[in-house]
Write a structure and sequence with these properties.
By secondary structure, this protein is of the alpha+beta class. The protein has two domains: 1-58, no CATH class; 83-240, Alpha-Beta Plaits (2-Layer Sandwich). 19% of the residues lie in helices and 21% in strands. The protein has helices at residues 2-5, 47-57, 118-125, 190-202, 208-217; strands spanning 15-17, 26-27, 32-34, 83-92, 130-133, 150-161, 175-183, 234-240. The strands form two sheets. A six-stranded mixed sheet has the order 2-8-4-7-6-5, with helices on one face. A two-stranded antiparallel ribbon has the order 1-3. Helix 3 crosses helix 4 (190-202) and helix 3 (118-125) runs parallel beside helix 5 (208-217). The longest helix has 13 residues, at 190-202. Substrate binds at residue 86. It comes from Mesembrinibis cayennensis. Keywords: Isomerase, tRNA processing. Residues 124-241 form the Pseudouridine synthase I TruA alpha/beta domain. It catalyses: uridine(38/39/40) in tRNA = pseudouridine(38/39/40) in tRNA.
């Protein structure tokens, strides 16, 4: 918003972002919309000018504008979204946090105990697909009483992945896995709680059918204590329109 204000609009700019994320969560690609009204006689910015100008003012920030599109007045970055895709990066094979590659620090989660039972996690993830009351899988906050806990999970996949520069430390037998979730929207901290529950399955603390039981309980207090995944492994991958 500050960067856009440097473009000297004649009306203060209001910035609307598609998705808010917890502190420590990353975004590979987020979306936002804004209206820029220029002084009389000045032409509207084209897409390329807007990208270059905003990035010039964003130089010191860990954020870059990748694309810009002209949209209709009825478009809204948050409410026009058809779905949002999140990925969560897990690192397996670490028996101690000091074994996490230094370039991956704060970009993945290495759960205690080394390797996880991935087939059990994949079985458990199937219970999350479809439309459910996700009350057990949301953290409580001030908005809880005003939001429906019903959400539809369109995708819940667990796939092997590559780490940054991983070809240089293959001998260490570290494995990266990605959990991908897609839905129109998610309740507060839903993805981190789903990941935490699936990791508990992978560690043998829960059985796959326990995911179904947690859904049926519909109570945030029933969620296993301290099972929520940390924010550092979570990435908003894309917002689809």
């Amino acid at each position: 918003q500050k960067a856009a204000q440097n473009l000297k609009p004649i009306v203060p700019i209001k910035f609307h972002i598609s998705s808010r994320t917890d502190s420590g969560v990353h975004a590979l690609c987020n979306s936002a919309h804004l209206d820029i009204q220029r002084a009389p006689g000045k032409p509207a910015f084209n897409e390329k000018q807007l990208i270059y100008s905003l990035n010039y003012h964003l130089k010191p920030e860990p954020i870059r504008i990748l694309n810009a599109y002209r949209v209709s007045n009825s478009f809204h970055a948050r409410f026009s979204a058809l779905s949002r895709t999140y990925i969560y990066r897990l690192l397996m094979g670490c028996t101690h946090y000091s074994q996490i590659p230094v370039f991956e620090r704060d970009l993945c989660w290495a759960p205690a105990g080394g390797y996880l039972n991935v087939p059990a996690m994949q079985d458990a993830a199937q219970f999350l697909l479809g439309t459910h009351d996700f009350s057990t899988f949301r953290s409580l906050n001030s908005e809880t009483p005003f939001q429906s806990p019903v959400r539809t999970i369109l995708q819940a996949d667990i796939q092997p992945s590559s780490g940054f520069l991983s070809q240089h430390y293959e001998h260490r037998r570290l494995e990266f896995w990605e959990l991908k979730f897609r839905s129109r929207s998610f309740v507060y901290r839903q993805v981190r709680r789903m990941v935490g529950a699936l990791v508990a399955v992978g560690q043998g603390k829960l059985m796959p059918h326990h995911i179904k039981e947690l859904l049926e309980i519909k109570d945030a207090r029933a969620f296993p204590p301290n099972a929520m995944a940390p924010p550092s492994g979570l990435f908003l991958k894309s917002v689809e329109y």
